[in-house]
Amino acid sequence: MKFIENNYIVIIGIYVLLCNCVGFAIMGIDKSKAKRGAWRIPEKTLFLVALLGGSIGTILGMQKFRHKTKHKSFVYGMPAILILQLILVIYFGVTV
Fold first, then answer.
1. Please, are residues 51 and 81 in contact by the beta-carbon 8 Å criterion?
2. Which listed residue, 9, 66, 75, 81, has the most CB atoms within 10 A of its CB?
3. CA dihedral sign of residues 15, 46, 26, 86
4. Directed axis angle between helix 72-95 and helix 55-65, to 10°?
5. What's the pLDDT tens digit per position in 30-66?
6. How many CB atoms lie within 10 A of CB 24?
7. If you write DSSP's letter for every residue of the chain in order, what string do you get?
8. How far is the C-alpha of 80 from the C-alpha of 27, rounded, in Å?
9. Which of 76, 61, 68 lies closest to 24, judged by CA?
10. Whole-angstrom Cα distance, residue 25 to residue 28?
11. pLDDT over 90 at 28, yes or no
12. Largest CA distance in the chain
């Protein structure tokens, strides 16, 4: 049973890592597109990636690329998503 539990942890870890890499990358891509005046990634998509587990990467991307840092919905929304995710991890980690 421990082997199966460890596999789930590894799978979840890989998933979260990939989500955060995607979150970081799409912030950079959207910033690049903004500079060129090209088609942009919708804000809903940026938030969706954060909600699906990429909040840390999205926040790091905001800071690294200085993107969406003047938008209150991002400045407060992304950390709020991260806090909610941490609360859920702590809650389910304790109850499982």
1. yes
2. 81
3. negative
4. 150
5. 999 999 999 999 999 999 999 999 999 999 999 999 9
6. 21
7. -HHHHHHHHHHHHHHHHHHHHHHHHHHHHHHHHHHHT-PPPPHHHHHHHIIIIIHHHHHHHHHHHT-STT-HHHHHHHHHHHHHHHHHHHHHHHH-
8. 18
9. 61
10. 5
11. yes
12. 53
The amino acid occupying position 49 is V
Amino acid identity for residue 70 in this structure: K
Tokens for 95? 């109850």
Residue 73 token pair: 């919905």
38, burial (CB in 10 Å: exposed 0-12, middle 13-18, buried 19+):
exposed
